[in-house]
Model the fold of this input.
Amino acid sequence: MDHALSTLLSPVVLFFGLGFGAGLLRSSLAVPEALAKGLSLYLMLAIGFKGGVEMSHAHLDADVVSTVGLGLGAGFGLPVVAYALLRGFTRLERIDAASVAAHYGSISVVTFVAASDYLGGLSIGFDGYIIAVVALMETPAIIAGLWLAQRGQGSPRRRGFDRELTREVFLNGSVVLLLGSLAIGWLTGDEGMRAIEPFIGAPFKGVLCLFLLDMGLAASTRLRAAGGLELRLIAFGLVMPLVGATFGLVGSALCGLPTGTAILLTVLCASASYIAVPAAMRVALPQANPAYSLTLSLGITFPFNIVVGIPVYTHLARALLH
Amino acid sequence: MDHALSTLLSPVVLFFGLGFGAGLLRSSLAVPEALAKGLSLYLMLAIGFKGGVEMSHAHLDADVVSTVGLGLGAGFGLPVVAYALLRGFTRLERIDAASVAAHYGSISVVTFVAASDYLGGLSIGFDGYIIAVVALMETPAIIAGLWLAQRGQGSPRRRGFDRELTREVFLNGSVVLLLGSLAIGWLTGDEGMRAIEPFIGAPFKGVLCLFLLDMGLAASTRLRAAGGLELRLIAFGLVMPLVGATFGLVGSALCGLPTGTAILLTVLCASASYIAVPAAMRVALPQANPAYSLTLSLGITFPFNIVVGIPVYTHLARALLH
Amino acid sequence: MDHALSTLLSPVVLFFGLGFGAGLLRSSLAVPEALAKGLSLYLMLAIGFKGGVEMSHAHLDADVVSTVGLGLGAGFGLPVVAYALLRGFTRLERIDAASVAAHYGSISVVTFVAASDYLGGLSIGFDGYIIAVVALMETPAIIAGLWLAQRGQGSPRRRGFDRELTREVFLNGSVVLLLGSLAIGWLTGDEGMRAIEPFIGAPFKGVLCLFLLDMGLAASTRLRAAGGLELRLIAFGLVMPLVGATFGLVGSALCGLPTGTAILLTVLCASASYIAVPAAMRVALPQANPAYSLTLSLGITFPFNIVVGIPVYTHLARALLH
Amino acid sequence: MQAMPTITSRKKLELIVDRAHLRRFIETLERSGVRGYTVLESTSGKGTRGAWLPDRLTDATDRVVVVAVAHPDAADHVLEDLGALFEELPGVAFVSDVQVLRPERF
Amino acid sequence: MQAMPTITSRKKLELIVDRAHLRRFIETLERSGVRGYTVLESTSGKGTRGAWLPDRLTDATDRVVVVAVAHPDAADHVLEDLGALFEELPGVAFVSDVQVLRPERF
Amino acid sequence: MQAMPTITSRKKLELIVDRAHLRRFIETLERSGVRGYTVLESTSGKGTRGAWLPDRLTDATDRVVVVAVAHPDAADHVLEDLGALFEELPGVAFVSDVQVLRPERF
Ligand SMILES: Nc1ncnc2c1ncn2[C@@H]1O[C@H](COP(=O)(O)O)[C@@H](O)[C@H]1O
Ligand SMILES: Nc1ncnc2c1ncn2[C@@H]1O[C@H](COP(=O)(O)O)[C@@H](O)[C@H]1O
Ligand SMILES: Nc1ncnc2c1ncn2[C@@H]1O[C@H](COP(=O)(O)O)[C@@H](O)[C@H]1O
Ligand code: NA
Ligand code: NA
Ligand code: NA
Done:
């Protein structure tokens, strides 16, 4: 399994490790917040656009329906599994467990991008519409999480689905930018790509390195806060991605998805949100403590997926789907 | 007129539309302020430098004199027309009308860049010195606006042209960066261009897409504020660019400017400032309410020019000047 | 000596001049802080990585040992010389003199990058390991400065080398990023370079232009503050780089370093820190006034090196080492 | 020669709340007759929910400071409403006395 | 064992003004004998000219908060001068009592 | 109908210090029993060491404002400790009276 070594030796993963190590050692290295946000916009614009251009070539087939179905299934189903695990094995209360569960039903765009970059290195192709699935999987888990939090509560929810929440759930920035760029890529096709390739194509991997340097810093800052967490909660952060990945792999195998697409769907199931869901949870479940979910999703699950998960899922998918 | 369709289908305009739509729907999509400012510096540095390199090839002819003349004429003259329209047809008071008028005599660099990008798509060339005209047209309108505001006031102006104002008018950041980059491009010529082309050339259109995404968000935020404006004021935001464009087109025809240069001059006349002039007005006319001018120039005139104006002016110029 | 003219006419130096001039004239031109910090991260990541890739090709020889030795010698020794000059010829007190001395023993990454860019233009090569020397020279001067400040003080230092200070000295962001990128470049070699070259290679010079525009603004803001300084202190800012350069040149000649490497080492010795050392001094010597050191290193020595120093040192090195 | 300006007592309200809930707090202020306010960003802090640092990726953990100078009557109203709102949302509020110029504005 | 530090009364001035006019307000403070101040940025707010949001493209709409602790005599002077300045420029000012360490600094 | 909320007196401490020394000041606050604080960034200012502007390249010159509402006893302790700390580190501190909701938090 020398893939594993080659992942670890890719500049993308090494820069992640550099940021992570610098953060653990409390180096003064810091990426300005505006830059980190800008890089994240760039990545979403770029992958959305590329996915759209891909889609303008392909004609959609039955795989689309199964992939979307699996994605939505994961979005609504994984939070329920996560909630059961958290309530059964850890000391988290209902609200906090529901909030953490929502994070794990949703996805991490950066993990997805790192995985697609990894596949690129192995020359494994995938379908452009998977980008649409990324966007579709951002938010169902939020709804599942709210349902889990309110289930069995006598009093009806106080303020309903208000403006702020709608905004965070359905008009979330990541969703809008991913789907919008996808649509633009699809509309402008190869000609559009020629025009902006020198911005979103060639330099993409380098930008990803810089972004993962920052993600390493962010993840280690969160991980340092994990000292205060109960051990079983930390274990959850390592087990839950495997549960998600199993769902993704088995589902993909049953639906007969092509390998590349199956791997990416698996990575989506295994990853947890640290952008869209935290924002929605602040509005919807203000009583939930954001420290739990961010420490788990960003401090534990994210590095696990980047360093261990992606090569392992790829290996398994290739074994299982060939 | 399939130009129109092709403008609407260019990635640049589509990303503008994406940002505009996201803003109208109150999506949480946001571009950090530092990134927006950085992109704007990049665009000015790039177009200034390219204009300068162009100029290092061409020998200047009589067209320069007529273009500069028309530009200065617009800068000093259009505010007077705008002021007359505003005082005659809307309820704006003297100070606010003068402030809005100043915005319309000045120019929008982004509109200019979008237009030059559009011309590039149609393979219509233009002269490098037009960049100098962009810079020259930034500020005369400020002086005209101040004159309009103080005309017929008994009391002399209180503080004269103080340090802050001089800074905003003559040493405005956009003017300095445009003219400075122009000079550097002119001095270093093709060799300079070879050195920095991979930064300011190839990726330019992609960066422009990201910037227009942000401009779409900014414009729609402003447009939402237009609800409070009187209808005639909104109409002014649509009529005034046509007045400016007419001046530009007729002037260009009379002076026999080449088509590409004529179109860009027309776009400059039709566009309104939302960077340099607002800053100067805060200092020079603190009593003016910036909401009027920004809503009109950024919320109404800017999107109008990007989506409708540029292709229309181009069509007319080609008909008129052939 | 038409090198000098060609330096002055390189876009990099001209953009520095543009920023410097704009700042002196108090133009409203401004580069957002987050962008400036982001550009600085980019430059360090890029030069670190390139240096590492270089090193993966070369086998290290005795020159490495002499270069590192000279670098450390400068880091520990130049502060002592600087301190003696400051105490002998200016009115600075012990603590302030020690703080300024520490700045001059350390280095300026941007000056280094400008110099390596200049050498590139003259097709003078240099060894990749010099990047490691850059990182190594960041911090010894801080230790020397602290020693100078506490020498001959009866009372022992109050708080020892506390967490904050260790962080600033040994885990300083620049040091970590330079060495980390160097290691990644060395590990991933040519393959890594192919992957991220379109980000860190081709656009590098253009990004450097934008960064030096900002550095020009920053330097002139500092220089404006120099009005309050005693004349001898200003003279120190011009003399000390020559002292450092002399050390670098003579040392390189004695050790027989190759020309390119010798020039860069000389530039390092001649340059003064305005990022790492100020941060460490705030923690270690809170009584020192940061205005002295920043005005001297950023307002006087930095522009001197960019415009005059680099071509002069290059000229001398070529004469001396051929 | 200038007339001595009129100085009058008003109340200064300060709220430290999650940015995600800012709109609801502002609505509460406005409903109670507060006519102006200013929002500042906080960059770190500590409270009953422990210390927090800004998260660079999501704004979910950000806190803001709202400063509002108001007529004492409006301030009383606000405090009543805030008491109820703080049962649902986290945050801190405090009030102090200030003297203002141009009291008719507040 | 430490001596109890001396605590003395001073005035805290707070100004909320347009950034474009900051220099003029600072000059007014300094002319009146205020020896130190601190400027903070505001990110949104509402006043008699309506609500405002920062404009990402121009700083024309930005507001800043100026905090200055000063001797009561200096504060009185400032208030007089501000009364006049506020006839020309928009903004809000208020004053309150504070206790300071090291009173000789203010 | 809502019960009138309880309002109680507390002290508001405000510190303006170099960001580089923030951690030491926070430690001092916490040692004295202050249970919450909020940090804001300042963007320019002036004091005995002259005017300062933020330096875009190094954060070495940055100042922060720390706001902490605390029980009067804790505030007294803090002031004593700050008196000593200010002999070593630069900065400014002042205290004022505030009324708070939910006094048990402070
Ligand atoms: N006593 C206090 N003084 C100043 N700020 C406070 C205080 N308590 C809490 N805060 C601020 O309010 C935020 C939320 O408080 P909490 O919900 O208690 O964690 C904290 O992160 C602080 O920024
Ligand atoms: N009562 C108030 N309390 C706090 N801040 C205020 C108040 N009134 C106005 N402001 C601030 O001052 C700015 C300008 O006020 P105005 O000129 O009245 O619109 C507003 O945007 C607010 O940020
Ligand atoms: N009287 C004052 N009022 C408000 N802020 C002050 C005052 N004096 C000093 N400061 C702030 O504290 C910082 C450091 O003060 P200093 O050490 O005296 O230069 C200054 O840069 C100001 O931001
Ligand atoms: Na998931
Ligand atoms: Na115009
Ligand atoms: Na040096």
